[in-house]
Amino acid sequence: MFKRHPLLKYYLKKIVTYIVTIWGAFTIAFFLFRLMPSNPIDAWVKSLERQYSVKIDRGSELVDYYKEQFGLNGTLWEQYVRYLYNTFVKFDLGPSFINFPTPVQELLLARLPWTLALMGISILIAWVLGLLIGAAAAWFRTSPVSGWLTNISIVLSQIPPYLIAIFLVLFLGYTLKLFPTRGAWDAQYPVGLNWNFIQSVLWHSILPASAIIITSLAGWILSTRSLIVTILGEDYLMYAEAKGLSPWEIMTRYALRNALLPQTMGLALTMGFMMSGQLLIEMLFVYPGLGELMSRGIQVFDYNTMMGIIILSIFSVMTASLIVELTLPVIDPRIRKEIMS
Amino acid sequence: MAEQNLKTLLTLKNLNIWYATERGESKAVNGLDLEILRGEIFGLAGESGCGKSTLITGVMRLTKLPAHVQSGEAIFHASRENGQEQVVDLLKLDPGAMRPYRWRNISYIPQSAMNVLNPVLKVEDQIADVIRAHSSMSKKEAQARIGDCLEMVGLSKKVALMYAHELSGGMKQRVTIAAAIVLKPDLLIADEPTTALDVNVQRVILQELTDIRERLGLTILYVTHDMAVHAQLSDRVGIMYAGGIMEVGKTSDVLSEPLHPYSQALVEAIPDIGGERRRIEGLPGAVPSPLNWPPGCAFHPRCKRMLPICQEKRPDLRELKPGRLVACHLYQ
Question: In this complex, is the C-beta atom of A246 within 8 Å of any C-beta atom belonging to chain B?
Fold first, then answer.
């Protein structure tokens, strides 16, 4: 059957790889967390002892009860099997410690839209702008403007996003007081689909979004420019010019079209990575996204919340690359041919 | 081909195309004169590095820096849709004004077809876009024309729906020939289109080119260093050396009785099948550098019959007898 359907074989192979990789990453993450020298209950007990100068019995029923609640009872192996079963069969990530007893999946669902919207829209804006500016920079590559643009992009792409975020907070937020620097909306407006609230959300997102756009835009400009400069040197570009096609047609159907393929793949992969969030940017702006949740979870050894976020990002990175791999043969005739032969 | 009354199609006058290098101007095409007549296959012969490809990109206005057209004229007699002839100097047109002449009047078969097709477009789309750019043909007519042209070069109509990676090297080369004739241009420039192919395919493609010329009445400028190809294909042949034309004449005349000492050495180097076995005499010395051509006749340091004047004055390309031009002091 596979002999006659090489595409089917390809798809099956990719899906199996997808499942195995997710399981592998899940397992590694699980054991890495358990390797930490503490767990949420012990850490909490210790901090209570320190705070109130009392001695708490580590073997008491109360401690055991909470350990059970967090799945910390039994051997490591039992904990693993139970967690694996709860996660993938019951879709239950357990209670969160930072917001006990709210289940982790509920916390994640509440935070997800904020990260998705902020990251997704910023990445998309940066991608479209980067593609257009990069293409123009490649087309006019001999002009000094293009040279300057490239140099500035090289510098920007090497600056970490949080550094730019700090500068934005300092100058535009703190010194000039142009934009708000904390949170995702103004507390005076009721949360919901009303104009004041939406306006407030957009207003609050300008600084964190700019921080993300500025740094990733530079990367897209550079990669698009170098891709298209390479394509402009290809024989088929010279041939297209000899055919007397309009510069616009040469640019779009011949140069950009060939650059679009790798750039779309890049976009899909970046979208996958966004779930792990720009941790530091969200922390800096106290943005109610996953990154900020993660940083709070880390402080109190909240295994369940951290694992929840890790699982979510494993899932989104893997799913994004699966989608890329499944669509590649559909949009690129060369790859289709390679699979078929 | 009737030899008389042929009208001029393209005249190159004192063409100079130089490459700007750190060590000075590299004069790849150096004061070249050439006339191509309507309806002929003109063969341009010359060794590697003599400026053949630079000349072609210059005529097609595809010269890219550091190469630049230093001076010269390329007078082209373009036929317009109303049947009139329009005389233009291709080198004086600005890039936008050159565009209408591309493909409609001058088309091109590249040296290597391996990478000239856009990998993400079907063959048909890549020929259709040139039709759309230069004619008012409907989509249906265009498709029919593309099919006809593919069949004319010995390909199936199905090739139109294929991508470049699905074609062999010979098929790609045929696609470029089909693309080159789709608008029936005045001049088809072929830059060694068969060098990358094996001898069998080469022979078949040359035969197809000859047929196409007969059927469509094209003018072909065929460039190759392969004298055997010229013997088979070209009506007239021009011998190029050091960025200039040394000799022009009917192919049979030049091959049987070369006049210029360089042509003589070139023809001498063609082995005879079944002829007496002999050691082929090479030319002494090496090709001079285009950065610094020898003064006077560029060939004089390697010439067996050099005269004193050869070191001082560059010989003009002069008509020795009707249809026979040679740039050599021996005949002036």
Answer: yes
